[in-house]
Fold indole-3-glycerol-phosphate synthase.
Amino acid sequence: MNILDKIVARKKEEVAAAQEMVSVKELKYYRHYNEQVPLFTEHLLAENSTGIISEFKRKSPSKGDINGKAVVDDIIPGYAAAGVSGISILTDHDFFGGCNEDLTRGRELCKLPIIRKEFIIDPYQVYEAKAIGASAILLIGAILDKTLALELAALANALGMQVLFEIHDENELELLNSYVQMVGINNRNLKTFEVDLEQSMRLAAQLPEEMIPIAESGIGSVDDYLKLKNAGFKGFLMGEYFMKQSDPAGACLEFSQEVKQRTTKSV
C-alpha cells in the first residue's frame, strides 16, 4: 500500500466510528451548522487580493513533524492579520496531527473563509465539515470516482460550502463537475509525495474557464508565486513554507509584504 492507500483505509475506519458517535441529525444541531460562511471565490477574486491560502498543519507523511506543538490560537489570527485570502486547516489526526476542533477554533478566531483539508470519501464528512464551520471542502481526485465526486460536491454546495477539487494529472480532469468552484493543482505526487512544481503549469491551461485555478504544494519563494501568478493562477495554497518557521504568522506576513511590493512594481 502507498501512503494514500493507507490514509484512505484509515479514513474508512474513522468515518464508521464517527457515525456511531454522532449522527448526521446530531451534526445539524452544532452551533456552526446553520451559520452563513464567507466564500472563497469572493476573497480570492477581490481587488488587491494576494490569493494566498495559508495552511495550519503540524506534520505530514512526507516531512514528519513540521511544527508538532503548533496551536491554532497562536497562528490563525496572525495569518488573518497578514492579509491572506483564506485559511486551510488539516483535520486529519493520524497522518497530519490535526483535529476538527482546530477548524472550529479557527472559525472563531477569524472571519476569513476556511477550507477543511481532509481526505473526504463519504457524505458524512461533508455534513461534518459544515457543522465544524468550514467554508469549503477539499475533494481529492485521486481517491474518488466520478459518481462520488459529483455526489460530494453537490452536497457541499447544497449546504452552503464551496469545493476545492484537487487534481494531479490530465486523467483527473474528467472528474470535475459543475459544483466545483476551485481546482487545486497539486505539485506533489500523492503516491510518492515528491514535488514537481512544473505540474501546475502543465495542467492550468486545460481547466474550464469558470473554475478558479489554485496552485498547491511546493511554493517555496516569491519567485515561485510570481511564476504561477503569471501563468494565470488566482490562489496559492501554502502550508509547509510557513509552518516550518518558528513564527509561521510572521513568515506569512513577510511573504505577503514582499508579494505586494513586487506585484506593485510590476504594474
Observations:
- The chain has a mean pLDDT of 94.
- The chain has one domain: 3-265.
- The chain is about 40% helix and 15% strand.
